[in-house]
Amino acid sequence: MKVLVTGGAGYVGTELVLKLAENAAISKVVVYDNLSRENYNLFINSSQRISKDKIQFEFGDLLDTRKIRKVLADIDVVYHLAARVSTPFASADSHLYEQVNHWGTAELVYAIEEIKTVKKLIYVSSCSVYGSGKDLIDENSAVNPKTIYGVSKMRGEEHVARLGAKMNAIIIRLGNVYGYSSSMRFDAVINKFMFESHYKNRISIHGNGRQSRSFIHVNKAVDTLEAMLTKEIPSDVYNLTERNLEIYDLIDEVKDLYPSLEFIFINQHLELREQKINPETKLLKYIPLKVTDFSAELAAFRDQFTFQASTVIA
Fold this sequence. Notes:
Elements: E1 2-6, H1 11-21, E2 28-33, E3 55-59, H2 65-71, E4 77-80, H3 94-115, E5 120-126, E6 136-137, H4 148-162, E7 168-174, E8 176-178, H5 189-199, E9 202-206, E10 212-217, H6 218-227, E11 237-240, E12 243-246, H7 247-257, E13 262-266, E14 276-277, H8 294-302
Parallel strand pairs: 1-2, 1-4, 2-3, 4-5, 5-7, 6-14, 7-11, 8-10, 9-13
Antiparallel strand pairs: 10-12
């Protein structure tokens, strides 16, 4: 079996590629990435767990129609992670999001339709397509994106959904991912809080701190995606998330790890957008999530830092 991972050099993609490369049923993992985030850790991973000839790298853009078709020629399963990414409610660079997340996904789908050899497509979308609100969201909730990023991911979903009647096309709406990866993102809220706590001993909180977000650990996201390779899961939309936390909850957890931590509020009078996703997702029927302790996850994340900085703040 040959698997293609678009965006395979990214935060989630790197860990997924390494996980897939350990799977004996897979003969080749092809990584398709334009390295726009300039993250090269996939290429220097020191792990000896995998055969070095099992991963193949193809440098390219989603909008490069000719190359996409060439790379897809003998692929069985596609994981589509490549995207212009954003924090949940940010809205900027509208043209770039539209080009990459919407039309880039469209080009991939057109190519899969034309090649006709791909048996399964797993598209990693985002819970940002639901927009914001105080009600608990599930897969039956209407999409109502509030940002350019959310709109672009929703448009990408529409293209993937067209394939559902022709092949196994699965849409995964991912919550906010956190935790250690060799290709880190430190703009995600938990990762950002951990970095600032460890090296600055101070974190900044925007708004009143009562806004909720939905989270899932990167390892659980990767394990679930890898399990989907062989599971019989119908073409549909599935949420992939684990817990809802207020920013105040995060502060309490992080402060347990860093007792001298200081925090400041910015525009504390503002009530910022929030989102809560029902963790009892439809996907659990097919792939249950391993139960883990959130505090232990953060402690394990802390242990990945190279050194402890001084706690003295100028």
